[in-house]
From TrEMBL:
Function: Quinone reductase that provides resistance to thiol-specific stress caused by electrophilic quinones.
Flavodoxin-like fold domain: residues covered: 3-205
Cofactor note: Binds 1 FMN per subunit.
Originating species: Niallia alba
Oligomer status and interactors: Homodimer.
First-tier enzyme category under EC: oxidoreductase
One GO molecular-function entry: FMN binding
Cofactor: FMN
Record EC number: 1.6.5.-, 1.7.1.17
Keyword Repeat: no
Name of this chain's protein: FMN dependent NADH:quinone oxidoreductase
A Pfam short name: Flavodoxin_2
Length: 211
């Protein structure tokens, strides 16, 4: 049985978001095809994702210097323990599906905060004499990205930062089985918007069977 994290970073559900509609189609088909797997939905807009701030650095510093957890301030305890929960959950999963819109060439800020929470030395990567080494080599990722324009290829591809960043970070964690599924161009061709959405949903269902 595999543990799957379905991680969404969109304030809207599938009724208002093309990306979320495609993501739901994927995860519904995945659960049908893999009934014994455990799927956990992490809606980042409904989760407490601490920013890495002074409290976090101070809390980590106290722990690294040998102080007990009870010597942290209440704010340090809350933030440090929550970040530990998030990173542990991430490490224990086998597969990850990220669903994000492309906003200003990147994903929403809450996704960056989440990725910061799981980018932890000793958990997802480690430093060695040969340089950083990823520790999650047996995992796999699918990134579903929605954008009104076309950024997966063509003249705007070099401006796209979200999918490229996520792929780079996952490789840093040791995850090289990384797939992308794009639903894009519906603002450029609004008369084809429903066709673009339907095509992406069909591709998502097909991908779910073999993921």
């Amino acid at each position: 049985m595999a543990k799957v994290l379905y991680i969404t970073a969109n304030p809207f559900d599938e009724s208002r978001s093309y990306g979320m509609a495609v993501g739901k189609a994927f995860i519904d088909q995945y659960e049908v095809s893999n009934p014994n797997d455990e799927v956990i939905h992490i809606n980042l807009y409904n989760e407490y994702i601490p920013s890495i701030d002074a409290d976090v650095f101070q809390g980590w510093g106290k722990l690294q210097s040998g102080s007990g957890f009870d010597q942290l301030s209440d704010e340090e305890k809350t933030k440090v323990s929550r970040l530990a929960e998030l990173s542990e959950q991430f490490v224990k999963a086998d597969k990850y599906i990220f669903v994000t819109p492309l906003w200003n060439l990147l994903f929403p800020p809450v996704m960056k905060a989440y990725l910061d929470s799981v980018a932890v030395a000793g958990k997802t990567f480690e430093y060695t004499a040969q340089g950083p080494k990823g520790l999650l080599t047996d995992k796999k990722v699918l990134h579903i990205q929605a954008s009104g324009g076309i950024y997966s290829h063509g003249p705007a591809a070099d401006k796209e930062m979200a999918h490229r960043y996520l792929k780079t970070l996952m490789a840093f964690f040791g995850i090289n089985d990384f797939q992308g599924l794009f639903v894009e161009g519906h603002d450029l061709a609004p008369e084809r918007a429903e066709e673009i959405k339907a095509n992406a949903i069909a591709r998502a269902k097909d991908a779910a069977i073999t993921f």
